[in-house]
Every structure is written in structure tokens, then in C-alpha cells.
Amino acid sequence: MAIAVSTLSLLGLAALAIHFRFRSDLARAVDRSAQGSTILATRCGPVEYQAAGAGTPLLMIHGSGGGHDQGMAFARPLAQRGMRVIATSRFGYLRTPRPLDASPEAQADAHICLLDALGIDKAAVVGVSAGAPSALQAAIRHPGRVLALALVVPIAYRPRTITDSAPRTSDRADAMRLRLLGSDFLFWAGSKMARAQVLRYVLATPPELLAKASKQERARVDGLIDGILPVSTRAAGLRDDTRLGKRLGPCELARVRAPTLIVSARDDGFGTFANAEYTASHISGATFIGFEDGGHLLVGHADEVHDDIVALINRINPQ
Questions:
Q1: In this structure, which of 91, 95, 124, 171 has its CB flanked by the most CB atoms within 10 Å?
Q2: How many Å is the Cα radius of gyration of the chain?
Q3: What distance separates the 2 farthest-apart alpha carbons in the chain?
């Protein structure tokens, strides 16, 4: 009996310690997710954003599990290289509410509303992952406002006749991913105890790539994983992104007039390589850069991608 009581006591203490650590990490994550951001009233509704740098305006549109914070984490090096980065939170992420119409078209219009509210006539637009559909629609629907377009590991339409090395995700896999990403505690626990699996199945990046990555790259990837918390304030956007990825239809790519760069990696677990290649082939003059490895997070290629984006923009709007 004494042994059983001692065991229960130890289990209770362990549970309390886990609970305390989780609550502490969550509180820090909530504070971090609000740092530097402002909610701006626009004619399309309230939009959360943060800005950094000076120079050519660049609208940064984040991917799944993101927000203005994830967008700025990607684009901060661009802000240090002559860009005025405006990183926005898409519909349903952090403090940007989800409207009834949360389609890529409506989101694209909201991007332009944000530029209007900031007094910006034209901007380069960068869309990463699930941020690509609304970035692309901004270039289609508002061609006079988009100076240049960069789509990085884009979630985009491709005909089913075009195959990819990565299979399309199943409904069951998506449901499991959403359960993990719908709970702050489950995601926190997974990121602590099964980090490699989170990297492979949630962020679609082979974890073995980190073994040969630089210390700087490992820190970047760790920051991206930890930066998804709190997932509860991103859940509405995550659900929309998951649905959208399964029902994207063709769009009028021939109407894109902005100089365009599209980047992906062949081993991206979300299968964006074929999406990117198809999209680039249907936009006049678009440049496609395909890496053999790197996964969805483009491990080992971040600096090169930033260089390519800067080169694209400077060709159009030299400093």
C-alpha cells in the first residue's frame, strides 16, 4: 500500500510539473504572438499586421499555423535589405477575425485594403505555403497594385493528371493533424516529446535534414516549430487552410502580369513541387527554382531564397 501511495504521489508531482511547464510556455507564447503587432481598421474589416524596415513595400503573407509573427520571422532578413516589410495575419489567425467569406479572393481583397489603409500604392507580395492562394489572387484581381510576386512552397492548384513524389494527404491524416493543431496542450506535448514527428508530419520536412544543417538553420526551424504555439488562436485559419488545400481549383494564371518567382523542394511532404512547377509554367515569364531537398521549410536554402526575392524586386524597383 505504501508503495502504491508513493507511486501515486510521484505521478501527481510529475503531472503538476508538466502542467506548470505547459502553462508557463503557453503564457510566453501568447505574449510573443502579440509582440509588435497592430490591429488596423480597413474598409475590409480589422487586420492585424506588423512592420519593419524601410524601402520598397513588401506584403508578407504567412502559411498555415502562422500569423504576422511567422510572416515576420520569414521576412525579417528582407527588412534588413532595403524592404519595408508588412507582415499580416490572415483571416482566422491571431487577432484578424474570420469573416463569413474567407475565400482566397476575399483575402486578396483584404490584403489590398490593408495597403490602402497604410497609404501604399504598390507592393511586392510574398506568399508562403497556404499564403500563396491569396497572394496569387492579389496579383490576378489587383494587377496594378502588385509590383512583384514570390510564391514559396505554394499550396496551389495542379491537375490530378500531374503526379508528385509526395502523395496528396488523406482525409484521415488531415483530421489527425487538425486534432494536434487544435489543442495547445497536444501540440506543446508533441513538440517536446515527438519533435521529429511534428517536423515530418505537421511541417512536411524530413527531420534528417537537420542533422547536416547549420546551427543557424536548426535554430530557425526550432523557432518555427515553437512559434506555432498558441495554436488555439490560429485554429480557425488552420481549418480553412486544410479545407482549401483539398478544393483549390484552377485560376486565371495568364492574368498575372507581375514579375514572378516560384520556389519549392522536391521532397516537400505537402507535394508543392509539382504545384509550383505547374503554376510557373502558366505565368508568362515566371521563374521556377526547384531544390532537390529541403522539405516544406526549405532547410538549408533560406538565405538563397531571400537572395532570389531581393534580386527579383531590385530588378523591377532598383534601389
A1: 124
A2: 20
A3: 78
C-alpha cell at 24: 508557463
Q: Answer yes or no: are the C-beta atoms of 141 and 108 closer than 8 Å.
A: yes
C-alpha cell at 128: 508562403
Contact 221, 210 (CB under 8 A): yes
CB 59 within 8 A of CB 86: yes
Per the document, the length of the chain is 319
Q: Where are the domains of the chain?
A: 35-167+234-316
pLDDT tens, position by position, 156-215: 998 877 666 555 555 555 666 667 677 899 899 989 999 999 999 889 999 999 988 999
d(CA 165, CA 236): 30
Cα–Cα distance between 84 and 260 in angstroms, integer?
19
- CA-CA distance, 148 to 83, in Å (whole number)? 13
Query: Dihedrals φ, ψ of 78, to 5°?
Result: -75, -35
Is pTM beyond 0.85? Reply is yes
H or E element at residue 85: strand 83-88
